[in-house]
Amino acid sequence: MSRPNRIALALLLLTPVLLTACANSRKPRKDQSYVAQDVETLYSAARETLSRRQYRLAGAQFDEVERQHPYSVWARRAQLMSSYAYYAAGEYQESIGAAQRFLSLHPGSREAPYAYYMVALSHYNQIMGVDKDQKTTQQALDSLGELIRRYPNTDYAADARLKVDLARDHLAGKEMEVGRFYQGQGLYLAAIIRFRTVIDKYDTTSHVPEALHRLVECYLSMGVPEEATKAAAVLGNNYPGSKWYDRSYKLIERWVPDAPRKAAG
Fold first, then answer.
1. HEC letters along the chain
2. How far apart are the C-alpha atoms of 93 and 136, rounded to whole Å?
3. Is 17 left (phi over 0), alpha (psi -120 to 50) or beta?
4. pLDDT tens, 134-193?
5. What is the phi-psi region of residue 136: left when phi exceeds 0, alpha when psi lies from -120 to 50, beta otherwise?
6. Which CATH number fits the domain that encloses residue 74?
7. Which domain holds residue 59?
8. pLDDT at site 74
């Protein structure tokens, strides 16, 4: 669904709908002189620029359509096209701004799902590695969730659901990184809190087996073999074939010799 060319083509074919509210006045860009032109000339020039893949310039030209002709039927198209062009250029904040302007003016529009999708994609494409702050990941998760709640039966929502899973996995990865750091520093209680967050909050992600294993390690390091055995049992019941259970089993076998034997298979 993030295929730019297909989305752009779909937008170019949208049927014009008369504006029902006034567009916000926009200040001219400092690097763009004001030249009054008729709306069709401006819009056609922006489309031509977009077809040449000069996305940043196309976004500015679509903004100019909206600025010079805020009451025209073209201004509504231009907002969405501006959002797409900025997204394709990697100018994500500008893409979000254009989509949000559209939604503030036309919240009930049939094109609203696409505008929500552009907001969500722009946040999603700014997700940083797990060694960085995950504020943007949470923003992406929130905007994806809003799209799914509002328009659950659209293709946009179907793609959003896939991205939600990836975003949640990313947040779980961050918790694991912090937990492993605390564990390495001997701060076992702090580490346990992080690992349990993964197990409780991100239970469908790929990080759960390791989180359970890390609990085993932490509890054994703290001298609490009973809790370590419980965590290993949960790991064995749910992920019996994982490498993390093999590692946990070896630890339990070594440090808790009276614990139940490893499950078959």
1. CCCHHHHHHHHHCCCCCCCCCCCCCCCCCCCCCCCCCCHHHHHHHHHHHHHCCCHHHHHHHHHHHHHHCCCCHHHHHHHHHHHHHHHHCCCHHHHHHHHHHHHHHCCCCCCHHHHHHHHHHHHHCCCCCCCCCCHHHHHHHHHHHHHHHHCCCCHHHHHHHHHHHHHHHHHHHHHHHHHHHHHHCCCHHHHHHHHHHHHHHCCCCCCHHHHHHHHHHHHHHHCCHHHHHHHHHHHHHHCCCCHHHHHHHHHHHHHCCCCCCCCCC
2. 12
3. beta
4. 889 999 999 999 999 999 999 999 999 999 999 999 999 999 999 999 999 999 999 999
5. alpha
6. 1.25.40.10
7. 1-126
8. 87
Instruction: In whole angstroms, give the CA distance from residue 226 to residue 60.
Output: 64
Q: Does a structural domain hold residue 28?
A: yes
Number of domains composing the chain: 1
* pTM across the whole model: 0.74
CA dihedral (165, 167, 171, 173) in degrees, to 10, reads: 70
Residue 210 lies inside a defined structural domain of this protein: no
User: Can you tell me the distance from the alpha carbon of 56 to that of 44, in angstroms, rounded to the nearest whole number?
Assistant: 16
Q: Which residues contact 137 (CB under 8 A, 6 or more apart)?
A: 127, 128, 167, 170, 171, 174
CB 144 within 8 A of CB 164: yes
Q: Which two tokens stand for residue 179?
A: 């937990």
- C-alpha closest to that of 106 among 20, 201, 16: 20
